[in-house]
Design a protein that fits this description.
The structure holds two protein chains of two kinds. Chain A is of the alpha/beta class. In chain A, 49% of the residues lie in helices and 15% in strands. By secondary structure, chain B is α/β, with parallel strands linked by helices. An eight-stranded mixed β-sheet of chain B has the order 3-4-2-5-1-6-7-8, with helices on both faces. Classes of the chains: A alpha/beta, B alpha/beta.
Chain lengths: 328, 387
């Protein structure tokens, strides 16, 4: 069973706001968690989106077992863990781990330095957030008692900020030319630029999101960050062709409905015809955007528009579709 | 028939947002559109501005990152931070429309330039901390949108150029960024940490307390000594410029609270967007900011006819099983059923919002079948918002 990303350990999922990137990240984590595999799903923007999607209590800053992955046929699911990365907690942990700053750490907090470093000092916040993710990916057997992950899925900031977010060395350039933070950032960049990382972009088939995806890919290429696939979300049903939609005749609709015992008034027939026309119009627009996505020359995956809310069953359905298409 | 359900009925009591009354109200000088990313805020702002102008107001719209073709149509592709007249707006009613694409960094630079001597300004603009702060500090964008709003408002009052400013807000990480940005930026620049950093630059050795020693020691360890020196230089320079920064931020904040300002919260009928909208509404009310209402974009429209979603799915199944010629009708039934389901789902989400915020007047804008990239499209959106 091959997938398009066999070497990738860190899947970064970005996308324009409102395209459903968190849902896709969650579905991807489920799809990657096959039998015997441990997958970590991380969020870094303090929204508790994972907790809401999986209907669990708000996540603390610690790795938690979240759910069971989507099993392959005849197999069992692996384990999906979740982590909500909080920059302030990450900084204190970082200080404790690398500098053993007992008293000074507390003094830093008292003087507002922790707040300064995590919300204001440009770049430092992102180094801390990505640093925690980096640690989870690079963890090995020397770290006793901690779970080792086969894959880490990062629900990342939106497309407009993704390059800045991942390009941590550059963000620090000019600020920290030398020093420990700098070397930390450089080590992380080595992972982010390697084939073990893939940055996937989520879009819908509308003009702005597709444009932003195109721009995002160019920006990622420009700084040597590895572009993964494009996940096209909320695709409309395609069981009718453009010709079929164009040829809808009210008379035929009335007759077909009667054949299955539905006596249709003119309102319903008109409603059906109208729904078909609007659908044809939107499908034509989607097709134009789909052609643009195809021209991007990266693997793409399509997920349907779901009409019933984003519950767990829906996430599993999406995970299955991603796996069928080879993303996981 | 289960058709339009309880959720739809529950929405009947929601107050309707009268957009034209808002646009025509000469007592309103500022309309701020806020909401989470991807809900159509920019299009909504532009459409409202165009409609107001064509109803006789003298309008300027500050937009942030509009779609390229829309920016072209409005004649604002270049980021020069100056309002430009929008060609093609109907001025028969005596109004006119200017538009401007906001350049946050430029706005910040202008504030520095207006406050410091050229020499000092150059020093600040070149400092790496300034560069990073002005382009990537969370909240800078949001703050600068408000700063520019304040400037334009002051100029407009002095010169009588505009009687309505419509402002789009940047897509924030969260609603907090936008409302807290002025406070956050000013508390940063006036903050304790900055005072500490300034202490050695100002000389008196007695300020070198034990606490500070630990801090600078720790920072040197983490960031390196050179970073600390840059930071101290930056802080010393910016301090003289932004001496009264807090005052400035407070003035902007007061402008937002003024009765002449109206906030519109923009959302899409999605759980996340409505949750964010609910949060905005709560924050605006606790900060005593005047909320005019909620605009729900991209709503699915109730299809005509009285077949329920479930009945339509069932009929589609029967058709598929029975008659190969019925594929088209079966496909239509499925689309119809999908749409019924979406309408019901959106109604449930909106009624949940309405139950928690019963007094918020709401305008529901149907999803357009195509993207908006010209004035005709904006006009059409304006009509739909004002329905």
């Amino acid at each position: 069973m091959t997938t398009d990303w066999p070497k990738v350990r860190l899947h970064v999922v970005t996308g324009k706001g409102g395209t459903g990137k968190s849902t896709v990240a969650a579905a991807l984590a489920l799809a990657l968690a096959t039998e015997g595999k441990n997958v970590l799903l991380c969020e870094v923007e303090g929204r508790q989106g994972i907790a809401r999607m999986f209907d669990v209590d708000p996540l603390p800053y610690e790795e938690r077992r979240l759910t069971t992955g989507l099993p392959r046929e005849g197999g069992r699911g692996g384990t999906v863990h979740a982590l909500h990365v909080d920059p302030e907690a990450a900084l204190l942990e970082y200080l404790a781990m690398y500098y053993r700053l007992g008293r000074a750490g507390r003094a830093l907090d008292r003087f507002g330095v922790i707040e300064f470093a995590t919300t204001i000092a440009p770049g430092v916040r992102d180094v801390l957030l990505t640093g925690k993710v980096f640690e989870a990916v690079e963890r090995n057997s020397r770290n006793k008692g901690a779970v080792q992950y086969d894959a880490v899925v990062l629900d990342a900031p939106p497309t407009g900020r993704i390059v800045q977010f991942l390009n941590v060395s550059n963000e620090l350039a000019g600020l920290a030319r030398v020093g420990p933070i700098r070397s930390q950032a450089d080590t992380m960049m080595t992972l982010f630029r390697s084939p073990r990382t893939a940055v996937h972009l989520v879009t819908v088939l509308e003009e702005m999101p597709v444009q932003e995806t195109t721009d995002g890919i160019a920006e990622l290429h420009a700084v040597d960050l590895p572009v993964g696939g494009v996940v096209v979300n909320r695709v409309r049903p395609q069981d009718l062709s453009a010709e079929q939609l164009a040829g809808v005749a009210p008379g035929t609709v009335t007759r077909d409905l009667l054949a299955v015992g539905v006596t249709a008034g003119p309102d319903l027939v008109e409603g059906l015809v109208h729904v078909g026309q609007e659908h044809a119009q939107r499908r034509a627009l989607e097709d134009r955007q789909r052609a643009l996505v195809a021209a991007l020359d990266v693997p793409s995956y399509e997920l349907p528009r779901l009409t019933q809310g984003g519950d767990l069953a829906a996430l599993h359905e999406l995970a299955g579709l991603l796996r069928e298409q080879g993303m996981a | 028939m289960s058709g339009p359900t309880d959720a739809v009925a529950a929405l009947a009591g929601v107050a309707h947002l009268d957009v034209d009354a808002l646009l025509d109200d000469r007592g309103i000088g500022i309309i701020v559109c806020c909401g989470s990313g991807g809900v159509g805020k920019t299009t909504t702002s532009a459409a409202l501005a165009l409609r107001a102008a064509e109803r006789g107001r003298k309008v300027v719209v500050l937009t942030i990152d509009p779609a390229r073709r829309l920016a072209q149509a409005m004649g604002i592709e270049s980021l020069d931070n100056t309002p430009r007249p929008v060609a093609g707006a109907d001025e028969a009613a005596g109004g006119h429309l200017d538009a401007m694409m906001l350049d946050m960094k430029r706005t910040f630079d202008e504030v520095v330039e207006s406050q410091a001597s050229p020499e000092k300004a150059r020093q600040i603009l070149e400092n790496p901390f300034y560069v990073a702060l002005s382009s990537s500090f969370a909240g800078t964008q949001e703050y600068m949108a408000m700063e520019k709003l304040g400037q334009i408002q002051r100029d407009a009052q002095r010169d009588g150029t505009y009687d309505l400013v419509v402002v789009d807000t940047p897509p924030s990480r969260s609603a907090l960024d936008f409302l807290d940005a002025p406070e956050r930026l000013s508390s940063f620049l006036d903050g304790r940490f900055i005072r500490l950093m300034l202490a050695p630059a100002r000389g008196p050795a007695r300020l070198m307390t034990a606490g500070l020693g630990i801090i600078t020691g720790a920072l040197t360890k983490i960031l390196g000594a050179q970073v600390l020196r840059d930071l101290q230089t930056f802080v010393a320079a910016i301090d003289t410029v932004f001496g009264g920064f807090r005052q400035r931020a407070m003035a902007t904040y007061a402008l937002l609270q003024d009765d002449r300002t109206a906030f519109l919260v923009v959302a899409a009928p999605e759980p996340d967007a409505l949750r964010e909208a609910a949060y905005f509404v709560d924050r605006l009310s606790s900060d005593r900011m005047p909320l005019a209402g909620l605009v729900v974009n991209r709503a699915s429209e109730q299809p005509e006819g009285d077949l329920s979603g479930d009945a339509a799915y069932a009929a589609a199944e029967r058709l598929r099983d029975g008659d190969p010629d019925g594929a088209v009708t079966a496909g239509l039934l499925r689309l119809y059923a999908d749409q019924q389901r979406l309408v019901e789902r959106e109604a449930r989400l909106r009624s949940r919002f309405a139950a928690a915020h019963p007094t918020v007047a709401t305008a529901v804008v149907p999803a357009l079948p195509s993207d908006v990239h010209d004035l005709d499209g904006l006009r059409r959106v304006g009509e739909l918002i004002a329905r």
